[in-house]
């Protein structure tokens, strides 16, 4: 059987990092995903999807993602049955994340590269003064390998 989902949207709140009694990291968050089509009133409808990430993925999300940040989540769909406080049977759908990727550029207020993983680290501030990665290669540099 195949159970794989890839979904992209903006976080609706900051991720919540918790630990199980055994010390395993778990993070929960929700993303808002606009539908591809417009409703009859001309507005796009939005789905709010609950996400659960475990272990190193949970720690990564809680450290580098915040409300409003675009995320691409790859994982599996999980349906859970549970009983509410009034004794009613309930059902919830959530995505259990295997991988979470940045879906946008680094936010403007976070232009520093300190502690940010690749590809977002290693910005222009880390290059030697006067370095131009787009400088033309002169003929005196020797033959090109291609």
Summary keywords:
mainly beta, 146 residues, single chain, 7% helix, five-stranded mixed barrel, 1 helix
Structure description:
The chain is mostly beta strands and 146 residues long. Helices cover 7% and strands 44% of the residues. The protein has 1 helix and 6 strands; from the N terminus they run E-E-E-E-H-E-E. The chain has one helix at 55-64; strands spanning 5-11, 16-19, 25-38, 44-54, 70-83, 89-102. A 5-stranded mixed barrel has the order 1-3-4-6-5. Strand 5 and strand 6 form a beta hairpin. The chain is extended, with a radius of gyration of 21 Å. Residues 111-125 have low confidence and may be disordered.
Termini separation: 46 Å
Note the run of SSEs as H and E.
EEEEHEE
- DSSP summary: helix tally: 1
| Largest sheet, spatial ordering of strands | 1-3-4-6-5
Please estimate the helix content.
under 10%
Q: Structural class of the secondary elements? A: mainly beta
In short:
The protein has 146 residues and is mainly β. It is built from one helix and six strands, in the order E-E-E-E-H-E-E.
